[in-house]
Batch of 2 targets.
Target 1
Amino acid sequence: MDKEKIVAQADLARIEAIIAEYQNQRWALLPLLERIQQEFGFIPPGSIDLIAKSVGLFPVQVQGVITFYAGLYTTPRGKNIVRVCRGTACHVRGGKTILKLVKRHLDIEEGETTPDFEYSLETVACIGVCALAPNIVINTNTYSQMNPKKVALLFGRKDKV
Ligand code: FES
């Protein structure tokens, strides 16, 4: 059973309780979506109708807001979010190779999540520490001056991050 179905079955009551806190507050759509995502790691698609009804919008309008905001997701994400920098400084210092190696270690492409929901892989334009390029961010930790050996140390054993 995939994570979404587990969430849908086990936590529907929890979703309804959160929604109840924001009942009839159209202005609160974004905080409500963020709260649900914070709780589950994503916004279960099965909750969109309930959310829309509670704030007096159509489901398509709620879906539109989710699509608009890059930080909102309707698919389960990994416990660890890996962001490989694709900015210019990182690129010229081997960022492309680093991304390729991370993909190989995790066996996923950009935008995907490992089947065990341990990792999701994304790329970012620049994380602001160009002098230490190439860089990777895992959750809130930055790993700088990456090279193939460091990538292997980070991802060779998934339980070591
Ligand atoms: S380009 Fe990678 S940190 Fe700026």
Target 2
Amino acid sequence: MRVSLRVNGVEAQTDCWEGESLLFALREKLGFPGAKNACEQGECGSCSVLLDGRLVCACLVLAAQADGHDVVTVEGLAEGEQLHRVQQAFVDAGAVQCGFCTPGLVVAAADLLARSPEPTDDEIREALSGNLCRCTGYAKILDAVRLAARGA
Ligand code: FES
Ligand code: FES
């Protein structure tokens, strides 16, 4: 089947089979490898994207369900050479080790700050609770989100 959607504001089309995930279509068909493929079960958050402004796990959304809709991936957060403030804060806070979880965390944190510009630590922890990191111990990730919030 043919799927038409907007990815990071640009019209895109791809052919896919009925059971194909949005994550697979983004990574393997449409050239957006930012969302990572780890569990494919909705457990790790590494595939987080915004679908019509709502945070979703792209591995749990069918590509067909995105037909006619807007998707924003981590690649769409920066404006040209200008990193999104959450991306910059992750760099500045040293919140990246292997980096596999980072795109999903950045998208989830950007979503949080769009909804809640001055989140409490509990709000940050709740918002990022669906994103697993095997490396950092989370402390620097929390620092990065606090830093991004302060820089708003
Ligand atoms: S790959 Fe989608 S939640 Fe883990
Ligand atoms: S930095 Fe390696 S999984 Fe988070």
